[in-house]
Every structure is written in C-alpha cells, then in structure tokens.
Amino acid sequence: MNIMLFHSTYGLRPAVRAAADRLRAAGHEVWTPDLFDGRTFETVEEGLAFKDELGKDELLKRAILAAAPYSGRGLVYAGFSLGAATAQTLALGDEKARGLLLLHGTSDIAENASVDELPVQLHVAEPDPFETDDWLSAWYLQMGRTGADVEVYRYAGAGHLYTDPDLDDYDAEAAEATWRTALGFLDSL
Q1: Residue 74 to residue 95: CA distance in whole angstroms
Q2: Helix residue ranges per DSSP H, the chain
Q3: Which residues 6+ apart lie within 8 Å of 138 measured at CB?
Q4: What's the CA gap between 102 and 36, in Å, rounded?
Q5: Which residues have a Cβ under 8 Å from the Cβ of 129 and sit 6 or more positions away?
Q6: What digits encode the pLDDT tens for the residues 134-177?
Q7: Would you say the pTM of this structure is higher than 0.90?
Q8: Could you give phi then psi for residue 52, rounded to 5 degrees?
Q9: Dihedral angle sign, alpha carbons of residues 30, 35, 39, 43
Q10: Mapping DSSP to helix (H, G, I), strand (E, B) and coil, where does residue 167 land?
Q11: Which residues form the Dienelactone hydrolase domain (predicted)?
C-alpha cells in the first residue's frame, strides 16, 4: 500500500518516523510530510497555538500539496490526532483513496461527503478528552452515511496519543494492539 501518514499537533516527531518505519518494514511505501516546516512542540497547547497561527486552510493546503504527487496511485491516508483529522478530510475528498487509518482522532464531515465503501479504521483511547463518546457516536453514524465501511477500536485507560513512547500518554499494550490490528487492516486492502 501507498500510505500518506500525517503527524499530530506535536509535529513530525520520532514516533511518527518510527511508525513509518514500522509500516515500511511490513512492505508499505510511506510518506510523512512535515506540515509544520520542521517545528515540533513539547505540549499540545504549544502545537495547537502554532496550528491556529498557521490556519486551517494553510494546513490543509500543505497536506493536499504533499499528497497530490502520489494520489493517483490510490493512497491510504493515515494520521495521528490532528494528522488523523487531516487524513480524514483528504480521504473523503479523494475518489482514488484506498483506505483511511485514523489514530487518536477524527474530524468534522462535510454534508456532501460521499465515498464508495471506503475502508476506515479508527483507534482511540477510552475515554479520550478530544474524542468524547457522544462525538464518536455521531461521527460513526455520519461516516456510515457517507458510504464508508468503518471499524472502531477503543483502548480503555490509555492516554490520548498512546502510541507515542515519548509522551506521558503512552500505553505499550494498547500501542502494540493498535499496530497489530492496523497492520492487518492495511494487509486486507
């Protein structure tokens, strides 16, 4: 699979590169665009402040420009938290998208979004301060209405960005379960 993997609000950190290496070791071609021009952040608040300064439109423009050279190949869009939201937006707008792998995040769904049985897999903490139960229920129903084929995996007690070993949120057991399931998902596409 050709995978476009977007970083979280922390920026393109070692955990994103390690995830890309893990995916490459499983036989996938992976791109990890740096939407923050080399900036990384120690806290969510710092990252969100930079994202707000950059602006949603500029962030999306950067993501589209990063994916454009490869989208004709049929990409799987993937991302961590903010990167998952970005991946979702691009996947729902790309008729050649092969799949959507969301780690720790989702996004609003345009009313006119429509896909043809796009395989979608979401991995998220339970509870998650950024992905509440009510939000996830509504998101799941909306994704189904777009035509997506959605699977959701919840990890009780894990922190929001539980796959990043450099953060306090890290949960080794949940991270390994996520990667095992995600790799199976990618192999099925």
Answers
A1: 9
A2: 14-25, 44-54, 56-67, 82-93, 133-146, 172-188
A3: none
A4: 20
A5: 160
A6: 999 999 999 999 999 999 999 999 999 999 999 999 999 999 99
A7: yes
A8: -65, -40
A9: negative
A10: coil
A11: 3-187
